[in-house]
Every structure is written in C-alpha cells, then in structure tokens.
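BUG: 3D viewer hangs when loading the predicted structure for this chain

Environment: internal workstation, default settings.
Expected: structure renders.
Actual: progress bar stalls at 90%.

Input used:
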Amino acid sequence: MIRIAAIVAVFVAAAGLLAMVFFSGRGDEGQFAFCGASSVAGDLGGHFTLVNGAGETVTSAEVITEPTLIYFGYTYCPDVCPLDVDRNAAAVEILEERGQSVTPVFITVDPARDTPEVVRDFADAMHPRMIGLTGSDEQVAEASKAYRTYYKAHPPVDGEYLVDHSTFSYLVTPEQGFLEFFRRELSPEEMADKIGCYVDRI
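Structure tokens produced before the viewer hung:
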C-alpha cells in the first residue's frame, strides 16, 4: 500500500508540474506580468476567415480591431454556452462602465445549424456589440485549430444532437495577438478585473 501511495504521489506531483509548464503565471516577464498572465505551450490564436451575421466573409484582422473576447460554442447548446456567453457579455458591460472597450465575439462550432442569421440573432440577444461568426466546416475547423479548441458532434437522435466542446474564453488584441484565456468558473467581475488589467497596459 505504501508503494502504491508513493507512486500516486509521484504521479500527482508530475501532473502538477505539467500544469505549471502549460498554464502557470509568467512571473516577472513581459508587460503583463502584473496581471498574472497564463502561459501556454506554443502559439495560440492566429488568422481565421469566417462569415458574420450579415453573410459577409470576414478575416480575423477585420474582426479583432481592439481588445477582443472570443468564445467558441453553439447556439443550440442547452446550458453551458448561454451561461458562458452571458457571463462574457456581463464582463464587457462592467468594462464599459469603467471606460474600457472590449469586443465580445461568438464563434460557432456547429455551422450546420448556426447559419449567419442564427448567430446574428444569438449575438444580438447577448450584447449589442457582440459579433456572431459561422462559416463552412473547413473555416470553423481552421479557427478552432488556431485556438486549439475541441469540439465533436454527437450522433443525431430524432434530428437533434449535442456538441461537446471546450469552454475557454480568449482575450486577444490586434497588436499582441493572444494574451490570456479564462475558465468558465470566473465571475463577470473577476473576468472584468483581469481583462481590465491587460487593457490598461496595452
């Protein structure tokens, strides 16, 4: 039993070390160190081409024109997505009250059902400045790959299906690119405080 416990302890320590490597703070390095910037292995974010709510093809450069908060989800999501996107919208509103402007963006991982009109209406209902984006399967896959998100549709049942997907939100800017990711456990106030720290230092 002692040997098993020792092995488990070693495994837990190794897992903790890996977590530190992939998601630990950057210490004193960089202009955003004070904000507790998280680090990830390799590049995150990058170019994408998608379709907006007006049916227009747009690039990431046309979407990300100021600090931008990006979330990948789908409008038919029964619980997680509406809560996460509403939280993001609430954080953006708090920032607006503080005089800081951040664009909220929703990118669907279910382009088969989330047409331009659907993502437009969903985004409009969440926040007046939110940008809803969809596209072809290939375009969505490219955007997802850039941000290293995961999604997988379940087999349909009576024409309906769910989509498993990751739930991080990403703060990016035109100049710096990816700055930070946020887990869904954060409250709107906590997210606004952290985003505001970055915006103050851009």
